[in-house]
Amino acid sequence: MHEKRDSIDGPGQRPLAESACEPATAQCQKGTNDVQDLASSPSQLLTVEAGAPPPPPLDDKSDSGVDNYVKDETYPEGGLEAWLVVFGAWCGLFASLGLMNCIGTLQSYVAEHQLSSYSEGAIGWIFSIFTAVSFGCGVYIGPLFDKYGPRWLLACGSLFLIAGLMATSACTQYWHFILAFSILTGVGVALLFTPSVAAIGHFFLRRRGFASGIGTTAGGIGGIAFPLILTQLFAKLQWGWSVRIMGFMIIFFLVVANVLVKKRLPAPKNASPHPDFRILKDKTFGLFTFSVFMLEFGLFIPVAYLPNYGLAQGFSREFSTGIILAIFNTGSVIGRVIPGYLADLVGPYNSNLGSLCISIFASFVVWLPFGHTVPGLSVFAFLFGFASGNNISVAPVCIGRLCRTQEYGRYYATAYVVAAVGCLIGIPIGGAIVSASGGQYQGVILCTGLSQTVAFISCYCAKGFKVGWHPLTKF
């Protein structure tokens, strides 16, 4: 069929099938266009300007096959219902990502109290397992969202998260923290995080970067509020009631998320709730997934160790465990809104690459030479927070460029289950570097900057293989 069309249609000529439909009805014209769309390759459909995600190849026999898709997807791009979903997602992400962004405050406290006899690397495993579970469980949560929607996922996630926090408030031994915080709370975050992000994509395409940026500001705002609140509570109420009070605060946001978050587009026919790692064979998707892996590997090292780094430099406890993380997450909030809006104008991959340049600059030019000063560390925290905020909010939009929305949960979850490995090993490796360096942090700084450099190279290659190597190409 393809060879016949190529031989008949000369350069600049219209296909015979199209010309034959000129006297026919609009329905005939539409049918011809559908045939042409299916006969085109993904690279032809994914134009640089429009950025419309392609269907799978015609020979794809998986659940992602062409016949399983709804043709002519349309998106509200706004309106009351769409923005209520964004607000609901914001509440779900405030509870989940906000908690994830305050792990440095929690780690600093347990390192000095309940687990003071353990090394930095050993304590780091508690929080690295937590972040790995939070991202890694998405390998099934994403496909389940595609097939069944967010309702039961959010309800179960809310129960797991609150139960995990209440159990964490009573922890006194290492294995207590692994079970209560790393596993139980981590599963709760995963059940909330993935549906909240994926639901936004059901209502926005052209403005998806901006809408995702608005929704994910919740993680940064939670990362500002929780460290400051916990720092004050730890001084007055100690560990148990401080964590419980944070859990009671989160309940309100979980209720709102359960009421408002929903999906809009139907699942593909014969959609499976099981993951499909065959999609990693796509060169662009595989390279971008590796970029996300390196990005997340380096991201959580500063999030976890900035408080201990500040204390090691002799800064005050209030600054090291509360203010510095608030500065980091303030940059993160701004980095999710402004670059998210720009991503719709210049392309999400270009926005992601620009932010990676900022994180590399912040690591090598600010943190390494000037991190021993309060202004230097503050500037680094803001810049790195700004860059990471953009990358967290725009990376899902980049993934959305490579798939149909009905399969978005599966693609997103597959990328982030790989990223979960980076989260798992990043914090313990950072702790091991500190221990091997006799408490010095230069190695941690270099590790952070190099991870972001590799992420930049991989992301640029993913873009280059898809739309060409010119750095200004919109994609």
UniProtKB/TrEMBL annotation:
KW Transmembrane helix (keyword) present: yes
Residue ranges, compositional bias (Basic and acidic residues): 58-70
Which residues does the annotated region (Disordered) include?
Answer: 1-70
Gene3D superfamilies per the UniProt record, alphabetical: MFS general substrate transporter like domains (1.20.1250.20)
Query: InterPro entries, per this entry?
Result: MFS, MFS_dom, MFS_trans_sf, Proton-linked_MCT
Q: Which residues form the Major facilitator superfamily (MFS) profile domain?
A: 284-475
**What's this protein's family per the entry?**
Belongs to the major facilitator superfamily. Monocarboxylate porter (TC 2.A.1.13) family.
Stated name of the protein:
Major facilitator superfamily domain-containing protein
